[in-house]
Amino acid sequence: MGRSNETFNKKNVREKKEKKRKEKEKKKLERKESRDGNNLDDMIAYVDEYGNITSTPPDPSQKKVIKAEDIQLGVPKSQAADPADLIRKGVVTFFNDSKGYGFIKDTVTQESFFVHVNATLDQIRDNDKVIFEVMRGPKGMNAVNVKLNKEKKEAPKTLPEPGTL
After folding, report:
1. With the CA atoms of 57, 59, 64 and 67 taken in that order, what torsion angle do they form, in degrees rounded to the nearest 10?
2. Does pTM surpass 0.85?
3. CATH number where 115 lies
4. Is residue 26 in a domain?
5. Domain tally, the chain
6. What band does 13 get if pLDDT is binned at 50, 70 and 90?
């Protein structure tokens, strides 16, 4: 008597494929039966004022009118800086003459700016009060056109010694 050409593994694989095909056909029929003509309403989603997706439509009384001219696409154009705003006052916190660089601390914002000897108009040292402009460099904001602040300072008022009046 001859052996069957079909092995157990081949028979098992064929049965699994047949079972999968029948399940797929069954699901297809279920979808077809449950489908109605107004299914589009079930697919619509709304976004509320906070950006959350909801199934309820928005309240028409809270509708806001927006003009098309008010909508900005892209990055807004930067305003040209006023030259008076670029001039700052500060104090040299560190300056190395041999290496030719240092740092200036702005007296108003307390920001620290890098300064190179080529960007100075006067010779500066540590703790000098200076006037400077800022300019964007490759690694951040740099101080340029640095010059000594030569504002006249009032001498501190001294009290007369007791008994001299």
Report:
1. 40
2. no
3. 2.40.50.140
4. no
5. 1
6. very high
